[in-house]
Specification:
By secondary structure, the chain is of the alpha/beta class. It has eleven helices and ten strands.
């Protein structure tokens, strides 16, 4: 499609941020260009950009927001708000991977509305969000999710520390949480962004429920979802290969690239 390239900023250069930056710099996503990056470790960020041959600036989030049309948030959950506020205040679009943080910062939706910005949650590690959003146009009666993860993908979660649950040496699957999406997002801010996205697409964080299991036999993150609505009843399951960061599936970064590719694609499939 013709027209000026959409300028993409990246906040956070972990496994996903680096993969997205590399693809955009290589020109593999039509219609977009890399405008700059924001990172806590500026020296490391500059070294990475030099490695891939990019001369885009490493700046503050405010500066990146000013020069970008869309800022992709690929940072730890703890700094989500520090990224979201300046981006949305500038009236720009924020592609949020830390979807769970939206549940704890719902005022950001109003900020986006008032300033003309937008929060975009890519599909990430979960399939079927299009079906859920379609079903939500009617009546959804229930949404339940069962997540099973390798132990190393759950270590360090605040909920485990708070409840005194030790999983490092378990030898059999252990259910470590059973509750609402909102409670799960608080207790596992780096681990279950999938259920936050699911709740935002469907019936909300207080009616969407999730079980979380630690399984020492697993090598992949397994998510199973059951949706019951007046339009359809459907189940979906996905087994995600972890990325360099064991808390995040490899497909999460690919979903960002797919979402960016849709911006200027002559054919767009999916709502």
């Amino acid at each position: 499609m013709s027209g000026a390239a959409t300028k993409i900023g990246i906040a956070g250069l972990g496994a996903i941020g680096r993969a997205v930056a590399r693809k955009i710099h290589r020109g593999e996503i039509a219609g977009v260009s890399l405008a700059g990056v924001a990172s806590r470790d500026r020296d490391k960020a500059r070294a990475f950009l030099t490695e891939i041959g990019s001369n885009v600036p490493v700046e503050t989030v405010e500066e990146i927001a000013a020069r970008s049309d869309i800022v992709v948030e690929c940072a730890p959950a703890a700094v989500f708000r520090d990224i979201a506020v300046p981006v949305l205040s500038a009236g720009k679009r924020l592609m949020a991977l830390s979807a769970g943080q939206i549940l704890a910062n719902e005022d950001l939706i109003d900020l986006a509305r008032r300033r003309g910005g937008q929060i975009v949650v890519p599909t990430g590690a979960l399939i079927g969000l299009d079906a859920v959003t379609a079903a939500a146009e009617g009546e959804i009666r229930s949404v339940t999710m069962i997540t099973r993860k390798p132990v190393k993908g759950l270590l360090g979660a605040p909920y485990l520390a708070r409840e005194g649950i030790e999983i490092a040496n378990i030898t059999a699957p252990l259910k470590i949480f059973d509750g609402t999406a909102r409670a799960a997002a608080r207790g596992f801010p780096e681990n279950v962004n999938v259920v936050a996205a699911l709740s935002l697409a469907g019936i909300g964080a207080d009616r969407t429920t999730i079980e979380i299991w630690a399984d020492p036999a697993l090598q992949r993150n397994v998510h199973r979802v059951v949706v019951d609505s007046d339009a359809a009843r459907f189940e979906m399951q996905i087994e995600n290969v972890p990325s360099e960061n064991p808390k995040t599936g490899r497909i999460t970064g690919l979903s960002v690239l797919a979402a960016l590719r849709k911006l200027h694609a002559p054919l767009r499939v999916g709502t």
